[in-house]
Amino acid sequence: ATLGAEVYTAHQDRFKLKRFLLKLNIVYRNQPAYLAKVLKELESLSKDTSLTSESLKGTASRLFRSNQHLLEEFLMLVPGIQPPSTMLPSPEMVTIADDTEDWKGLEVETLSMPRKPEMDGITGSVRFTNGMCYVLEGKNL
To answer: pTM of the full predicted structure?
Structure first.
């Protein structure tokens, strides 16, 4: 029996929220009154039927103004808000010469797939080798 994408997404959201609440408990373990205030505020927000991403962002900025890490972690939980740049992984740039000699002797699989949904008909190359995935766009991999 399969559960589907909705159940998996709900599970992931719950897991991320639980992890955030555990971090709250660790950060504010010596400030139980402030922890209670934060939890009470989050509970009242959960009952607000007119809640928007922007109002949630404003409340989070007020609650976590003294802890940038908690603010960024919380904003990662809010749908519709761009993740903070500090939470994004750093890209790794790999330069490979134009000729295919760099691939000689390696077991290479080349797939053509759309890069974005709106790019129907335009394909890029994705290469998997030695457990790594490389995306070829133009001359950059």
So the answer is: 0.58
